[in-house]
Write a structure and sequence with these properties.
Elements (H helix, E strand, L loop, with lengths): L15 E9 L3 H12 L5 E3 L13 E2 L9 E2 H14 L3 E3 L3 E5 L5 E5 L3 E10 L3 E3 L5 H5 L5 E2 L2 H4 L7 E5 L3 H11 L4 E5 L9 H9 L3 E4 L2 E7 L6 E6 L7 E6 L2 E4 L3 E3 L30 E3 L11 H23 L1
Parallel strand pairs: 1-2, 1-8, 2-5, 8-19, 10-17, 11-12, 11-17, 12-13
Antiparallel strand pairs: 3-4, 6-7, 7-8, 9-18, 14-15, 15-16
Helix pairs in contact: 1-2, 1-7, 5-6
Bound molecules: NADPH dihydro-nicotinamide-adenine-dinucleotide phosphate.
Length: about 325
Amino acid sequence: MDTSAPPAENTGATDIEKIRCLIIGSGPAGCTAAIYASRANLAPVLYEGLQPGGQLTTTTEVENFPGYPEGATGPDIMEQLKKQAIRFGADFRWGEATEADLSSRPFRITIDNSKIILADTLIISTGASAKYLGLEDEKKYAGGGVSACATCDGFFFRGRDVAVVGGGDTAAEEALYLSNFCRKVYLIVRRHQLRASQVMQDRVIKSQKIEVLWEHQTKGLFGDKVVEGAVLWHKKGTPEETEVTIKIDGFFLAIGHRPNSEIFKKYIDTDEVGYIKTVHGTPKTNIAGVFACGDVQDKVYRQAITAAGTGCMAAIEAERFLAEQEG
Ligand code: NDP
């Protein structure tokens, strides 16, 4: 493979730049990778993507990120992580990776359909996006009772009634988590059965606090400023269709996530959903020199702290890889 790419040339129509370590994505994984890579003198360049700071910036209070005994807001934590990386020289830039050619090294990444980055190593930390139902009310009550992360926001609803939408393992897990401290948890399931694994189904059914609303779909939410309830359809589209109203303070979406791996899929192995496959216990992908960290490769834990951990691992592996290549 050609690792002797030309030096930086940032001018003119071509706008090609050669760098040692490119990080795509600015959530906890990307920022942590940037801290480690910059301290290792890899002069990392990080493109922040469409949602600078990642999913954490969509939550309000974060109480479970170590080092913040009083809690902090998601945007604050991300700002701190970014500052820490910049302190050691990481180069944060606006822009989205729109194309990737990983067929040879240096890897060729297109930013905003125009600029070309040639990177000796690539750290993919593009995260995952929670799926929403597509209701106007989800936007209206964002930060006012609607959330796609029970682990992040559930605790604010202790002693209250909440609903979780979905029938997979995530929905079951989140409903069970919420049942630890909420008064009542409705699980809104669109079919007459759960998709979750049997063990999770059994736990949900056994729970005294969870009421499964089979064959229900959400029509809308209501409330003055914050969520106070939801209107559901029961057996929508059948002759028995009825409307049901439930009183809730929190409305949690758990209908799946979409890993942001689309532009890499031609080269990088992913599972059937699109999560990047890594060598067990490492951030290594099927391509030497390309590493994946954070939610784009994690469908199980999906926490800011686990993302940060894998970001650290990716940077360490990038450093080792470059050391081997550069002799
Ligand atoms: P899944 O795709 O497994 O399940 C999504 C659920 O949401 C399904 O029940 C689906 O309904 C429902 N759903 C989808 N769209 C809508 C909609 N528009 N309206 C109402 N309901 C909808 O996603 P998960 O996030 O639950 O899991 C993803 C993967 O991660 C799975 O492989 C899962 O096993 C794994 N996982 C593993 C965990 C663990 O091992 N601890 C924890 C969490 C996840 P329907 O069933 O009708 O399609």
